[in-house]
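User: For a benchmark we're assembling, each entry needs the component sequences followed by a predicted structure for the full assembly. Here are entry 17's components. Please fill in the structure.
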Amino acid sequence: MTPELAGVEVDGLTVRYGGKTAVEGLTLAAPLGRVTGLIGPNGAGKTTTFGAVSGLVPPSAGTVRLFGGDVSRRSAAARARLGLGRTFQRPEVCPSLTVMDNVALGCEALAAGGNLWRQIVPRRNDTARLRKQAAQALAACDITELADTPVAALSVGQRRLVELARVQAGDYRMLLLDEPSSGLDPAETARFGAIVRGLVAESGAGVLLVEHDMSLVMEVCDYLYTLDFGRLIFAGTPAETRASAAVRAAYLGDDDALSAVEG
Amino acid sequence: MSDLLPFIVVGVAAGSVYGLAGLGLTLTYTTTGIFNFAHGALAAAAAFVFFTMHVDWSWPWPVALALAVIGVGVIGGLLVERLARSLSIVDAATAVVATVGLLLAVQGLIQWRYGTAARQLEPFLTGTAVHLGGVAVTRQQAATVLVGLVAAGGVLAFLRFSRLGVQMRAVVGNPDLLALAGTDPTPVRTAAWIIGSGFAALSGVLIAPFLGLEATLLTLLVVQAFGAVAIGRFRSLPLTYAGGVALGIAANILTKEFAGRPALGGLPSSLPFIVLVVALVLWPPRTVGRGNAASFDAERADRRWPAQARLAAIGVGAATLVALPHLVGPKLPSYTAAAALVVTFVSLALLVRGSGQISLCHAAFGAVGATAFSHFASSSGLGLPWFAALLLAGAAAVPIGALVAIPAIRLSGVYLALATFGFAILMERVAYPTGVMFGATGSRHAPRPSFAGGDTALFYVTVAMAAAACLLVVVVSRTRLGRLLRGLAESPTALTTNGLSTNVTRLAAFAASAFLAGVAGALLAVGAGNVNGRSFASFNSLLYLVVLAVAGRRLVPSAIIAAGLLAVAPAYVPDELVAHQALLFGVTIVVLLAVRGMTIRPRTTRTAERLEGSPVHSRLLERGATV
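Assistant: Structure for entry 17:
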């Protein structure tokens, strides 16, 4: 893999909560310009992996590289400023603010960064530029009509779209999307898949996706990593994953997922 | 070693009491998710009830002890439970305000009934001392330790073996599941509150003979149990008890070691607060995501008045202020004090309403500003021009604000409230008496500006400063920092993962707030002419927060109303009422929160966030229950 294509690379990642190992010895790569999937049954360690990659969860061992550089010791905010955006399984939004303000606040946070002066005084014309950027992202996610609605009044699915708009407005080169389709109806899910594919095709951004909707995973992902009990049990293309006996064993008993894996 | 033994004996006795109080606090916090700041006030109440029955009415001590503990335990427990039930779905800030309000109410009630003068309570267990390894142990001390051990062992056995105890542990684990299984969590919580309050009551009665009966002192001494609770990491009952005993021993040994050094005299008794602050900062208790982020409802755009109405209101207000000195006559100094307090309240509102961070140490910022101003402006000090000294006084408070930002970076919600309160008490005990601050004489002179020597001129100057502070806060809240702080109150994770270094933001907020609070302290000092440490007592910080909560939700108007309530209203009511100001505000906020179910933030999101912020949720994420 050429360095300019490198997105997120995780090497030997181990995360323990107290005495419990959530992720052990995980190695994966999510390059730019591709959609990489991270799947596995509940409790497999997917969200923990996201936490460690984005800098919110301290790993016990292993390194995280972003665009070729080691960011293991950088803060979550510093990783975001390098171009790593993420969404959450349970959307992290400000409920009392409107949709527009939420998305604009994301841009503003990025513009303010770690500089005390910039957190107090915006650059000239910054505020107007950021709102324009936010408005474009709302349009891309098809939620312009919700712009003035307080987020508190939105469904979980709509909140996910607010988060998606926020990472889009931030112009991140690498996106971590945590279960973006849960809470979305089938039509919204299909639209979401199109948004993600479009994003990757247009901007060349990389996406690392945690997802339970197997049909969406099989449709949008270029490559899949399958976790079970914190360990990597399979890595391969969707077709290879579908054929893997190990993956089928991990999902045994989960009929919906199994049938989707089986195609 | 042998010369330390007597101190260790006293330490074990006092420590058992802290441990007991800490047990009650940890038990109620883990079962209900509400940290009861009024715990110490309940202890004080029980001590006074015991005093009345045993000394005034000459009842035998076992009867008085049993009635005081059971009476205060049950009544206090039911009262707190009622309050906590209204709070069970609100944010951490409201819960802190409610229990701090209860503290002020209970303590005010005691002072109303018994006055503020300290009384002596003779040890009620008399008889010959027991000799233990050459050290005389009084019966009272031995009994205290024994009662402490029995009660601690009893509650642990109760939780492990009794049905109610198991249910209590289940409430901690998952209240909804318990409800589904056919057990209503409410009576279980009620039982926890009664047991917890009973422990507070017992500790109050036991400690009173060692310390004398004084409401504030007793309340504060049980506040020392906060240190024990921090050692127990807000979860473990055995560790809490052991921590209490260890603190008692350590504080007494330090007392001996520092006996010859009066400069460090405040240190031993402050040990529990040092432990509290350090433990909180070094090992922050686990909070989940934004769950514990506390926020008073931020000012919402749709609540604002139309522009013309605002302008008209400002115009009328300004005209009234100009005319005021000619209307109120000799009461003018109260208005000057109120104008200075407006600055204090906007600086607090900037933090609490603007960014959801609780500060219980604003009086300490004020004290730093007042003493710094005295150094800069008075002729015996640097003799700088008045305005320069005022700004420098604010600047002097900035490093202190930055220091408090360290806990703020690592903690939120109730833990931040505790850390700042611990810091406020430390400042009061260790820093106030030093020569740099109020010194041995206890008083500092703050000169008036040369151009405004008269009361009227000083009033105008103070009002101008207050207006400037309000304007500054409004500008901050409407520009980038204000937006970022508002986001920080609701979802710090979202801002962090969007590239904001929230540490810097929190630092900026605390520094700005401390600057304004420092200026306010200087203005208060100028208005009064001379100030001492009592003007900036740590309890004032509690009062500020409660009064601000009573005064409504809007940033600047609530600050003005709060200042009016605290400084102007007393000039127009009978003196007896003024003496019980804290009681009135405490009762008001408790009634507002408990009876009217007043909320401090929008309803829609509270349930989910409350759930997540509770130790219940964080414990779900952890291995096993330690209780």
